[in-house]
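Researcher: We plan to redesign the surface later, but first we want a full-length starting point. Tokens attached.
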């Protein structure tokens, strides 16, 4: 059966949660394959506004099995709180499955994350300080603790002793911070084993068996292409593979099972934290987009930097993800502006860049000048009630068609508001 990878194509915050929730009814499984609770997906449905940080957005669909894959790093304290929140809102978490191979975020990861950012000072990455990077460092260094380890007290203690022998020296001697004891962490974390045990599974086997039985899967990515550890604006990136290629490694399902890659693109563009941003707006228009679009981080509440749509980034994302379709979100926000700009290329040191430059130093404001095309807007026209493409104002239709032509990938879904029903299906079919 056909399966789909859903990925962010900018710097995250493109509206992946809404789209995942929207189309999850077409899938038997929704699999989160990377990242941790540094990513927040907002789902608005049935009068509820829920911020999900670890649980796949498909949990809202009673006929879908949500899976936390092996590529995710899990803070059990955050997961417990999230499951309680969902149950309080009448949403069952009984179907949730957690990979036995997913790595666990420990208290020392969080302490080290904050300490490393503080030490970087003005060169800070802009992490959420939730321990994501240090957890992935331990995973790559083969000293991490996995979900399955929590269920065996002897193994958990042994691995924790080994980890703390080194981590405590870092905390005390390098960062001058309090240290942790084995008993202290075990007392806090062992009770989570009872929460996790009913949900734990060998998810690669589960998912491949499901595919053989004719079921289909939606792989839900977190963050965005420009935050990918390999393909993003390094070092201002996250610590996992956010692109579509991360789905097979983060789930245990081979690439032959995937036949669609749905890229989520905001109708403008935003970024949280540090790093280059060629089309960033520092004027009233940037402030307006942020206010109308409610551009504040789901996890941290940080104000998002706003700018015009960047087609250079979009074309790059289309290539590195092998996009087959695009879901364009927050088109309604552009009803607030008179004229809309689209960045079609960069100019730096007398050279034009139609494709993402090899050296990211080119992208900084003092080096780069965005080359814009201007399109007429539809200011003041409320498009939130439009349910077909033909119902959109002519200028809104022209804008979507222009982006489609510029990026080279069909705009198959168009979101005209935050609610589930505020969506136009243009060419999309999960089958």
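Model: Full-length starting sequence:
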């Amino acid at each position: 059966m056909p399966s789909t990878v859903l990925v962010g194509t900018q710097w995250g915050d493109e509206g992946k949660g809404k789209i995942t929730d929207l189309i999850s009814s077409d899938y038997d499984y929704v699999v989160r394959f990377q990242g941790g609770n540094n990513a927040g997906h907002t789902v608005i449905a049935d009068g509820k506004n829920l911020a999900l940080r670890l649980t796949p957005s498909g949990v809202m669909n009673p006929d879908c099995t949500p899976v936390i894959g092996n590529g995710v790093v899990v803070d059990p304290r955050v997961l417990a709180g999230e499951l309680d929140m969902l149950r309080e809102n009448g949403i069952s978490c009984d179907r949730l499955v957690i990979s036995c191979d997913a790595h666990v975020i420990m208290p020392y990861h969080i302490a080290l994350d904050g300490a490393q950012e503080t030490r970087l000072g003005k060169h800070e990455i802009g992490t959420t300080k939730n321990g994501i990077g240090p957890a992935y460092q331990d995973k790559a260094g083969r000293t991490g603790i996995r979900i399955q380890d929590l269920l065996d007290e002897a193994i958990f203690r042994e691995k924790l002793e080994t980890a703390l022998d080194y981590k405590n020296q870092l905390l005390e001697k390098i960062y001058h911070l309090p240290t942790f004891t084995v008993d202290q962490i075990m007392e806090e974390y062992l009770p989570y084993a009872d929460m996790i045990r009913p949900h734990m599974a060998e998810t690669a086997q589960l998912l491949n068996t499901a595919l053989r039985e004719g079921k289909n899967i939606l792989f839900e990515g977190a963050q965005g292409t420009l935050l990918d550890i390999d393909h993003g604006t390094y070092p201002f990136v996250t610590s996992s593979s956010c692109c579509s290629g991360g789905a097979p490694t983060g789930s245990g399902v081979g690439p032959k099972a995937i036949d669609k890659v749905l890229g989520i693109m905001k109708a403008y563009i935003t970024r949280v934290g540090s790093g280059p941003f060629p089309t960033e707006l520092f004027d009233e228009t940037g402030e307006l987009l942020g206010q109308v679009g409610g551009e504040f981080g789901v996890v941290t509440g940080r104000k998002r930097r706003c700018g015009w749509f960047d087609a250079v980034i979009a074309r790059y994302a289309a290539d590195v993800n092998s996009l087959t379709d695009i879901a364009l979100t927050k088109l309604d926000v552009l009803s607030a502006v008179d004229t809309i700009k689209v960045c079609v290329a960069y100019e730096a040191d007398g050279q034009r860049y139609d494709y993402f430059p090899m050296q990211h130093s080119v992208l900084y404001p003092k080096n780069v000048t965005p080359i814009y095309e201007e399109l007429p807007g539809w200011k003041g026209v409320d498009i939130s009630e439009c349910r077909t493409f033909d119902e959109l104002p002519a200028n809104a239709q022209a804008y979507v068609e222009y982006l489609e032509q510029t990026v080279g990938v069909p705009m198959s879904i168009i979101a005209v508001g935050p609610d589930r029903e505020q969506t136009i299906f243009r060419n999309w079919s999960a089958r």
